[in-house]
Amino acid sequence: MKTLLRPAITLFVLLSAITGIVYPLTVTSIAQAVFPGTAAGSLLVRGGKPVGSTLIGQNFAEQKYFWGRPSATSPQPYNGITSGGSNQGPLNPALVAAVKERIETLKAVDPGNQLPIPADLVTASASGLDPHISPAAARYQVARVAAARKLPPEQVAALIDVHTEGRQWGLFGEPRVNVLLLNLTLDDQQGK
Amino acid sequence: MTIHAWLLLGVYLALLLLAAKPLGSYIAAVMEGRGLALRFGGGIESLLYRLCGVRRDEEMGWLHYALAILLFNVLGALAVYTLQRLQLWLPLNPQGMAHVSPDSSFNTAVSFATNTNWQGYSGESTMSYLTQMLGLTVQNFFSAATGIVVVIALIRSFARHTARTIGNAWVDLTRITLYVLLPIALVYALFLVSQGAIQNFDPYKDVTTLQVTEYDNPKLDAAGQPLKDDKGVAITEPATTQTQTLPMGPVASQEAIKTLGTNGGGFFNANSAHPYENPTPLSNFIQMLSIFLIPAALCLTFGRMVGDMRQGWAVLAAMTLMFVVVAIAAISFEQQGNPLLANLGVDMAAGNMEGKETRFGIAESGLFATITTLASCGAVNAMHDSFTPLGGFVPLWDMMLGEVVFGGVGTGLYGMLVFAVMAVFIAGLMIGRTPEYLGKKIEAHEIKMVSITILVTPFLVLAGTAIAVMTTDGIAGIANPGAHGFSEILYAFTSAANNNGSAFAGLSANTPFYNGLLAVAMWFGRFGVIVPVLALAGGLAAKKRITASAGTMPTHGPLFVVLLIGTVVLVGALNYVPALALGPVVEHLMLYPAH
């Protein structure tokens, strides 16, 4: 056993230093030199103040804004330090009740809307911080946002097209719209 | 499956198989002590050995090797435990994270030392940056290295004959870490940052959101526990905020080795669903590729080291076939969506999106779930708890196969080779000949070790689940009512004993009961397998090599591939079908009642 103890402890300490200190510090220094923006969190700044991150969604409930995915973080939705999903199973009555309530909220603010309700607009995301919705979920909200902002719907719909990202390299992922960027553009255009 | 999903699966397989061969040859070269990398890093390597008092040409017998591995991993668990228990007093803790509780620290220490990376805690509200990098990142490397060196020792035992030793554990651990894991992780981490993963040591950042959020804040008592009214409903008070706190940290460096080493423990609670861990569909694809990369390559390392590449290709073919079937199943079931929500008028064209991220959608979430559970990775980019019953059946089943279809780095291949020995043994019984594999006679000692290896995990899974469902502490953790609640417990023990680490995460597992019991399952699920595998290696290395005769069953053709698949699937099914029937199968029948 003694012949094992010295190599075990020394090797453990030395390899820990290499993989636990040298390695992360090397990654950090190269990353911050080459990709300073993303390494720091892809922050969005307006008027010198950070207003969010392009990668992290925010909670929107006002009529003039496009709404993002429902978020299951607690206590408030889109809480940056309690990421996670609802973990509700497919048969859980709480899931069905939550989706029903979300549909009623959507119908209440836009009673005339006859479009089918896209699944991603009424189901909670995995991270609770999903920055995106599907293009269908964005189009579903055009009439409401246009009315609240007194803008022609065509103009709002055109903005969605501008903000729609296709599949990465045409193959990976799904087409999507970044909700925070879309709402920021709307605010910027109206000079707020 | 959509055309897009088929295309994705095809591109994935093509790239994986393309990358496997060169990496497999490279690993073989490194582990045999030759190649360019060793000349390049030889100086550091020699210095390490000198400081440790290791003589690199001094090899170990299997028992010595096993003791070295055990000792190295016990040290790892102790280090992770200590760092968590003292983190408030240590540097790199800008958020002032408190010391972690003893039971949670114990669970996490065992979890990361065993390559399980089950997480009872939420990273962003529990762990300091120092604990993450010096405790958890280090164990991500070491537990991966441990798995790989054990399979290398087993491969050597087939390649050698009448030998007393199977390698030097210190040299093997050092080489796999320095020449394989570190360089790939470094490049991969930088790629992740290019996509948007964060890498810094800043304190968390407060941003002012566009609109004010109104919410119900739970009232807490003096001890910080939520207050409840007479009916057990939490008491809340209305609150508002216009501040969002963004978590920071050295994420990319940990994320890279998390998937490359089939570890799976996320920096954040949401794991690979978190946009700061897995920001784009491309980063997601590379994460999926990196999970299977080393397990696939090791099959060809095996072929090279035993001097017959066809042996490696046969094992890889068996794995690939089983993977394709379950991947198609998972994606198809999730694409169907949830009929209960469709009844409410929701358009289910996008599939079952509860617990999934928009940027990944169904195809990349279903594929990720399959890959992460077949490999004992356990990282998740979607919440498995919210999968459809049969969609959730797939990850459970994947783990129940024993993590041998690709499996964890090293662990997958040694598990599969154990099944290969079992398969030739069964074939030998059928035709009445002494079974042999790669020129080694399979005798009583081998079959004993193989049996222990195969039976340890099902025992831990089924006994653990039984204990949990019979105790109030076990039942208390359940989040979803009905059969799904049982599935949550079954999933937890399946994941722990097979060292996977993913979860039906609704289960409240950060309690002394689950922290303790799951830690036991993880430890014995890991070392209860590694020790008999090394004993098997010791026995095989000592055997004479017999030359193949007309009666030798070839172990590189389609017949053997089918036999191997049959053995793996049958053992999995025989062990677990009753338990599966009580969980996801019942749930499926309830979701689609007969009319």
Automatic annotation (TrEMBL), chain A:
Lineage, opening ranks: Bacteria, Pseudomonadati, Pseudomonadota, Betaproteobacteria, Candidatus Accumulibacter
UniProt family annotation: Belongs to the KdpC family.
Membrane-crossing residue ranges in chain numbering: none
Gene Ontology molecular functions: ATP binding; P-type potassium transmembrane transporter activity
UniProt main location, coarse: membrane
Protein name: Potassium-transporting ATPase KdpC subunit
Gene Ontology CC annotation, any one: plasma membrane
Chain's role: Part of the high-affinity ATP-driven potassium transport (or Kdp) system, which catalyzes the hydrolysis of ATP coupled with the electrogenic transport of potassium into the cytoplasm. This subunit acts as a catalytic chaperone that increases the ATP-binding affinity of the ATP-hydrolyzing subunit KdpB by the formation of a transient KdpB/KdpC/ATP ternary complex.
InterPro entries given in the database record: KdpC
The species this protein was found in: Candidatus Accumulibacter meliphilus
Quaternary assembly: The system is composed of three essential subunits: KdpA, KdpB and KdpC.
Pfam family, one: KdpC
Alphabetically ordered keywords of this record: ATP-binding, Cell membrane, Ion transport, Membrane, Nucleotide-binding, Potassium, Potassium transport, Transmembrane, Transmembrane helix, Transport
UniProt membrane topology term: Single-pass membrane protein
Localization per Swiss-Prot or TrEMBL: Cell membrane
UniProtKB/TrEMBL annotation, chain B:
Main location: membrane
Keywords associated with the record: Cell membrane, Ion transport, Membrane, Potassium, Potassium transport, Transmembrane, Transmembrane helix, Transport
Localization (cell): Cell membrane
Transmembrane segments: 65-83, 133-155, 176-198, 285-306, 313-333, 404-431, 452-471, 517-538, 559-582
One MF term in the entry's GO annotations: P-type potassium transmembrane transporter activity
Mode of membrane association: Multi-pass membrane protein
Pfam families: KdpA
Top-level taxon in the UniProt lineage: Bacteria
InterPro entries for this protein: KdpA (IPR004623)
Gene Ontology cellular-component annotations: plasma membrane
Oligomer status and interactors: The system is composed of three essential subunits: KdpA, KdpB and KdpC.
HAMAP family: KdpA
NCBIfam families referenced in this protein's UniProt entry, alphabetically: kdpA
Similarity comment text for this entry: Belongs to the KdpA family.
Function as written in the Swiss-Prot or TrEMBL entry: Part of the high-affinity ATP-driven potassium transport (or Kdp) system, which catalyzes the hydrolysis of ATP coupled with the electrogenic transport of potassium into the cytoplasm. This subunit binds the extracellular potassium ions and delivers the ions to the membrane domain of KdpB through an intramembrane tunnel.
UniProt name for this protein: Potassium-transporting ATPase potassium-binding subunit
